[in-house]
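Anyone else keep sequences and structure tokens together like this?

Example one:
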Amino acid sequence: MNVTEINIKKFRHLNELTISLGERLTAIAGQNGTGKSTILGLIGHTCREKTGFKTFDNKKFATEYSEIFKFSFPEYDKDGQHNYEIIFSDGVSTSVTSYIRKQKNMRETLRLRVGKSSKGGGKIDFPVIYLGLKRLYPLAQERKVNTSNHSLSKDELQFFTKSHNKILLLQDNISSQEVKSSNKQFLAAKSEQYDAMGNSAGQDNIGQIITAIISFQRLKDYLGNEYNGGILLIDELDASMFPAAQEKLIEFLFQRSSKLELQVVFTTHSIEMIEILMASQYKHQSKVCYLHKARGTIEVAKESDLDTIIADLKAKVLKHKLEDTKIEVYLEDKEAEQFLKPLLTPELIKRTKIIDATFGAQLLITLANKRIPAFNRSIILLDGDQKSSLKKPRPSNVINLPGEDSPEIIIFNF
């Protein structure tokens, strides 16, 4: 079982979005402010493992949206203004909407109701682990850190050490150490040269991801034939990882997700990870959901065009798209057009689109002086006798035809 689709009717700045997830790996990418982490929260809030079996860090296989984002209630987030649906591969679906929770002697709060139950009873029986940004909090900045010997079986220890070194391209002879702080509890690498406190940020990150995988393996062993897969949500998967390690991490997650029937959904800004998923052996069971806001609203990219995604992440315009874009030119009248065309080179003629309409000098001057935004991406071309009609500073997209008179007078005099 896995999640196939998220249909968001409305959730803050996300409106009328359908997001399809891959069977094994799904990368949710996009610039900051596109709602990537919010989507992880929407998925995680609908699921929980109902036998009560605990993860390695003694927590339930469940997550709440409040671990990922907070409502701004009642100023901005309102009752009933949050609606979405999660669809699973076995045909099961559940809808979620916001409601006001009223409790005696407590102030009202805004919550998310899954299905028809306000107390979580409507959640789908599907184990989930969420690894948020807290996992990246440096141990050096924790007030209190406790370490102890690992409690792993021989097979688990071998799995941890092998996975750790393979992902990070290390050859260290390591064991593991359990670390517990106010923000996280996980397995860290320990060698003759260093212990958990000497782990790099990358080792810390990988240790927590491997720990989550071990939790799912234990759950599978516990449930036996009742095990039906699960979902691992990771915010900023690429954080603290160099490119080669990112590639090895994708390989590791794909292999483990196949063996454990896991669905791994993560957010990323990494071009390397996007390239791997879109142009490799993973693409048939993986997806890249790219969110962009080029037109002001959040949209899911309709085409899996790697060049377009990279350009958007770098906030650049693709050269071929720039070359295909024609610049609109607004003129006073037909005489101005007849005067202009012989002055342009063939290359400039290809790059421009003269608007087939007459606007008159006064209308164009008004548009230029008021700096109407819709005309900022075009050129307003006035006759030569209108140079003194423009306010200073002169708009950069307004120019004049040659000479000091109108085209008619210039041609007549000639």
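And example two:
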Amino acid sequence: MPAMLRTSPPARPWWERPGLDAPHGRLRVAGHDLAPIAAAIGTPCFVYDLDRVVENAERFAAALRGTGIPFRLRFALKANPFPDLLAVLRGIAAPGRPGAVGIDACSPGEVKHALTHGWLPDEISFTGTNLSGRDLDVLLAAGPIRLNLDAVSQVERVGLRAPGRAIGLRVNPGAGAGYHEGLAYAGERPTKFGIWPDRIDDAVTAARRNGLTITSLHFHAGSGWLADGLGAFETALVRAVEIARRLLNAGCPIDELNVGGGLGVPARAEEQAVPLDAYAALLARHVGPLGITVACEPGDYLVKDSAVLLGEVVTVEGRGGTTFVGLDLGWNVNCMYFIYRYAQEIVPVIAPDAARTSTVTVAGNINEAGDVFAQHYPMAPVAEGDLVAILNAGGYEQAMQSTHCLRPPAAAVFLRRAETPVR
């Protein structure tokens, strides 16, 4: 008898993970078939896998814990402030317990929101920009939050309102990293963020004049950087450590270096995630010798791949040699490409791993020319009435929805694995 041919199992889509899969050609989140959810809720609709948020947070913390350095992990609230999601983060551990996830806030409203949803003031770190006197009054009344100031004038105004208070400084180390150049928040290109090294002495003088104690240092390299940005992040980190040493040598009792967030999540098969062990090792190597705590405040990294955004294909039409796939949602619901130029995968809910034999532009329903989600995009063929899922939709999308053109926001479903959907 002829030898039986061995066939390899078909390759799984690169984006599959625990909680996001497609058995029998039907896309699922947290073990739930998405087609019935869309039929029941309507589109557009965000569908979350809350267990993925917990997995991401625990994986991040485990990498830091493995280095042996003292650390604090905080969630950047602006990425997603919705109570269902915050509840699972708060549920990881109670305040003061090992593993508890704190909050990074960037507005007085976010500080109030965190307090309302179970965080204590000393679990909250605030870093904002262009703060008004009204902002400062709210922040100073919130209790012992860690208050990072990103301008010398802010130091002066806090000193007038709360002499003797502990503060932190947000600095611009003159180097940054981002998903692309425009998302680097620090570097040679001047940005609105942080005190530059040549103004550090001015900030220290202003603090001392007002009896303020500088106890923390903060920097944020940029947003969405991936494995190929680790070297650029290290450059920013080294410069921030130099500033920390400068402050320590000046007698400032720095007890925390906050390295910000900004770690991205791959959106294409060829993109590589930041290796967390290598990232944590960098922190240990450069911050460890200072003998202080390192703080990290990922937002998008913890929640981005926890959700998909469902939409219906309402138009498939050729225009000037380009095939446009139009969806029943717009940038008011998903601003990732419109504002940030982040890539996202867009797959059919039925047969999501089908061959991508078409090249299309995927566009939304907002009456603006820039309302597109992908251009020159290889996609499986779709027809009007089909459901598609935009992946990596858990961060900054639902949080940034608007009613531009009086288009309504999307619904949301929050799932735990093996549970009934919760609207």
